[in-house]
Amino acid sequence: MSLDARQSLSQAIDQFNADDSVKAAILICKGRTFIAGADISEFDHLPFKDPWLPEVVQKIEDANKPIVAAIHGSALGGGLEVAMGCHFRCAIESAKFGLPEVTLGLLPGATGTQRLPRLVGIEKALDMMLSGKPINVKDAFNSGILDMIIETDLQEGAIAFVKEILDTQTPIKRLSQININSNDVSTELFNDYRKQIAKKSHGFFAPEQIIKCVEAAIKLSYEDALKIENSLFLECLNSEHSKAQRHLFFAEREISNIPNKSKDSKIREINTFAIVGAGTMGCGIAMNFLNANIPVTLMEVSQEGLDRGIDIIRTNYQAQVSKGRLSQEQMDHYLELLNGSTDYADISNVDLVIEAVFENLTIKKEVFEKLDVACKPGAILATNTSTLDINIIANCTSRPEDVIGLHFFAPANIMPLLEIVRGAKTSDDVIATSLKMAKTIRKVGVLVGVCFGFVGNRMFLPYVREAELMMLEGVSAQRIDKVACDWGMAMGPHAVTDLSGQDVFFKLNDEWEDQPDDPSYFRICKVLYEMGRYGQKTGRGIFKYEGRKSVEDPEMTEIARREANVLGIKQKDISDKEIIERMLFAMINEGALILEQSIAMRPGDIDVIFCNGYGMPRYRGGPMFYADLIGLKQVYNTIVNYREQYGDRYWTPAPLLEQLAAKNKTFFEWSKERQT
Ligand code: NAD
Q1: Which of 187, 332, 416, 430 has the fewest CB atoms within 10 Å, counting from its CB?
Q2: Does residue 180 surpass a pLDDT of 90?
Q3: Neighbouring residues of 214: CB distance < 8 A, sequence distance ≥ 6
């Protein structure tokens, strides 16, 4: 619904109204889809250019002859709002309908919050607008959005439908003229929805504004309620939350745009897939491919390991069936696509193989030497390593151009993020194929370069490092985690390390050759590792666990005090502001280094990584967007201030940050300039 589309639609309605020889109109779209939403890029350039969408929708509704929306593809956001301005709606069976504005931190501001409740009732309207999820034709018909489902050609069907309306003189339906009967709405309803959003959309701004608009739809006249919708829409639009969510929307589209990609890079076909190592990650990764109907061969060293892996996959699917998320037939179908093997000869024909064996370079090198011998030419050989040097792994094969890192995140069948790690010799078509494959298995694939921890883990380590150091300085783990969660993180840093395992974090740091020469660096993690307090899996880590519930462990405070004594660290009080700044700014500073070194292509790529794999809330837009929002000068000055207090080991500002702060520029401006 760009300006052009609004203008021409508005003119078409004028012509339609003026032409007495025309009895009715059908609003139908050429191409892939009905109007699939607003032009989001316009949202950054207020005021909107006339005619703005609510006026166009009203103009459609005000027509004194029937207008029928004939829908194929997706009628989303502004598209559905236009369709609701029409007097009747029909659609083909594959069409989808929804108001996804909430996912951009917005509300349906072109009369959607007022028309949808009149069309489908309060509860269905709230469900659709608060989730933002599209519904299918059957649901749309049953809930009243559609007057007719067309099983033949859309245009022919719509013409037949219009003739019927004219023949039967069916009165025009104008949604704005329907009154909602407030007696039908229970007083508890809105409270129930508020409780629901407090849980599901904690911290987000737009959901509450949507509820307020629907409350207004009941209490006020249509015209007065529209004024509320309009003012709350503008409030959402100007909010930092919506800016952050819109930024992520564009950043997620940008991730598959690879600068300087060779023009003749082709996409390789991925029809068969194998995974070596049926452990935690291997099984989760396998499920992604099975879910996309791609046959999987699971490889293990022993039959016993194989049986265990297949059992994990079966149990995971069984749990989905029990919860009603998957049918038994679907589960059986997926398991039929799964084969097990302990013999490399069985994967000689696969198109893609991912190695997910122990995080040990010697073992991984052995596996890649075998893959090199066994796999057909042109097969993509990938590793799921979290930290190891992909170039070393690639160079132990005769085809380093076919080797790439595909770094999934645990649980691999659920977490959307996939870091696609390009080695020095990885070919462009292997990269392009990996990016496409990520979409096929519904992952958000972000291309990154080789370094310890790649982008995500490399930036996450300084964040956790600061969280740990502050424990030594006398702040309780609970408080640190609470400050992080209050800022919006899905879990606090200590809850995360306890979940992944203190043993995992210990080993991860231990393998790192350039580990800081600092006895306090991950000291608590090391002590817990030596005590066998690995976290959730052993019932005790930084916290104590009763089932999955964590409780404070007084012994932990003692351990922190004792270690601080040994290290000569003075315990003190630290403000909430410092707690969050130290964790986030340490992460942002590392992000600036990563950009400088071209390990990430764009600041937006880093943001996509953190909002899809590390529990950062979308309304913050990711670490680099957040830094730009508060201003790089402030980030830089704060880091300099911490350097004065805590020394330069961890608090030397990245040169890029220093340079941009001096010029009063943002990471995004820098990135844009670099691209042009
Ligand atoms: P895991 O210990 O659960 O599983 C490893 C599996 O590999 C075991 O089943 C083992 O029997 C098998 N294996 C070992 N050597 C083998 C060989 N030569 N051939 C075939 N199978 C072999 O480990 P995991 O947590 O699944 O991690 C696997 C990889 O994924 C590691 O590189 C790890 O760094 C990476 N990773 C792990 C996580 C995580 O959170 N667990 C996240 C991202 C990446």
Answers
A1: 187
A2: no
A3: 113, 117, 122, 125, 126, 129, 190
Report residues whose beta carbon is within 6 angstroms of any ligand 1 atom.
Answer: 276-282, 299-301, 305, 356-359, 363, 367, 384-386, 408-410, 500
**pLDDT one-digit tens code per residue, 12-41:** 999 999 999 999 999 999 999 999 988 888
Q: How far is it, in rounded angstroms, from Cα 591 to Cα 593?
A: 5
Mutate to test the pocket of ligand 1, among 288, 358, 396, 511 (most ligand atoms within 8 A of CB): 358
Amino acid at 556: M
With a cut of 80, say whether residue 368 has pLDDT above it. yes
Distances in Å between the Cα of 175 and the Cα atoms of 118, 119, 125, 516, 671 are 6, 7, 14, 66, 46
CB atoms within 10 A of CB 378: 12
* Index of the ligand 1 atom closest to the CA of residue 387: 34
Give me 421's structure tokens.
């790690």
Is residue 207 reached through a cis peptide bond, with omega within 30 degrees of 0 on the bond before it? no
Give the residue among 455, 422, 405 at the shortest CA–CA distance from 265.
Answer: 422
Assess contact for 201 and 619: CB atoms under 8 A.
Answer: no
Helix segments in 63-187, DSSP class H: 78-85, 112-120, 122-131, 137-143, 154-167
What are the tens digits of pLDDT across the range 546-555?
A: 887 899 999 9
Residue 308, pLDDT above cutoff 80: yes
Q: What is the pLDDT of residue 340?
A: 96
Annotated catalytic residue 101: yes
Q: How far is the CA of 449 from the centre of ligand 1 (A)?
A: 22
pLDDT digits (tens, 9 = 90+) for 39-80: 888 888 888 889 999 999 999 999 999 999 999 999 999 999
Distances (CA, A) of 535 to 257, 593, 614: 40, 31, 18
**Could you tell me if 654 and 589 are in contact, meaning their C-beta atoms sit under 8 angstroms apart?**
yes
pLDDT of 401 > 80? The answer is yes
Active-site residue, from 101, 252, 578, 590:
101
- Give me the DSSP letters along 313-355: HHHHHHHHHHTTSS-HHHHHHHHHTEEEES-GGGGTT-SEEEE
Rounded to an integer, the average pLDDT of 502-507 is 92
pLDDT value of position 670: 97
Report the alpha-carbon distance of residue 142 to residue 140 in Å, rounded: 6
Rounded-to-integer distance, Cα 323 and Cα 395, Å: 45
Residue located via tokens 């520029």: 665
The residues, ordered by sequence, that sit 6+ positions from 500 with a Cβ below 8 Å of its Cβ are: 410, 535
